[in-house]
Amino acid sequence: MLFFIFAIIGMQVFGSIKLDSKTSINRHNNFRSFFQALILLFRCATGEAWQQIMQSCLSGRPCDPASVSPDEPDDIAESGCGSFLAYIYFVSFIFLCSFLVGATAGLLVGLLKIGIEQ
């Protein structure tokens, strides 16, 4: 459930960032679709370069041309995507994932201990 909620939020907040092969938001790693967002969050949950992904989602990133309407100024397309919410988003996601993994591991150890004692 945590992944689904964060995937939808990520799609809304970071989905219009332009894909760039030189950053962590590229064609294999992005928030464009729900499936891609889930894959990206799974990668972050494993601890693989989540800091670089977070930095690639900060304010000042170029927008995808298809996501910018023609009546918006040109500077919006050049540096109007991303958000400072990336700090809160990624750190809270990592914190909650770590908590869930730790709680699940503790529960399993407790169940195994009870099972062995019987």
TrEMBL record:
<keyword id="KW-0812">Transmembrane</keyword>
<dbReference type="Pfam" id="PF00520">
    <property type="entry name" value="Ion_trans"/>
</dbReference>
<keyword id="KW-0472">Membrane</keyword>
<dbReference type="GO" id="GO:0045202">
    <property type="term" value="C:synapse"/>
</dbReference>
<protein>
    <submittedName>
        <fullName>Voltage-dependent N-type calcium channel subunit alpha</fullName>
    </submittedName>
</protein>
<keyword id="KW-0325">Glycoprotein</keyword>
<keyword id="KW-0107">Calcium channel</keyword>
<dbReference type="GO" id="GO:0008331">
    <property type="term" value="F:high voltage-gated calcium channel activity"/>
</dbReference>
<keyword id="KW-0851">Voltage-gated channel</keyword>
<keyword id="KW-0407">Ion channel</keyword>
<keyword id="KW-0109">Calcium transport</keyword>
<dbReference type="InterPro" id="IPR005821">
    <property type="entry name" value="Ion_trans_dom"/>
</dbReference>
<feature type="transmembrane region" description="Helical">
    <location>
        <begin position="87"/>
        <end position="112"/>
    </location>
</feature>
<dbReference type="GO" id="GO:0005891">
    <property type="term" value="C:voltage-gated calcium channel complex"/>
</dbReference>
<dbReference type="GO" id="GO:0007268">
    <property type="term" value="P:chemical synaptic transmission"/>
</dbReference>
<keyword id="KW-0813">Transport</keyword>
<keyword id="KW-0406">Ion transport</keyword>
<feature type="domain" description="Ion transport">
    <location>
        <begin position="1"/>
        <end position="102"/>
    </location>
</feature>
<dbReference type="GO" id="GO:0098703">
    <property type="term" value="P:calcium ion import across plasma membrane"/>
</dbReference>
<keyword id="KW-0106">Calcium</keyword>
<dbReference type="InterPro" id="IPR050599">
    <property type="entry name" value="VDCC_alpha-1_subunit"/>
</dbReference>
<keyword id="KW-1133">Transmembrane helix</keyword>
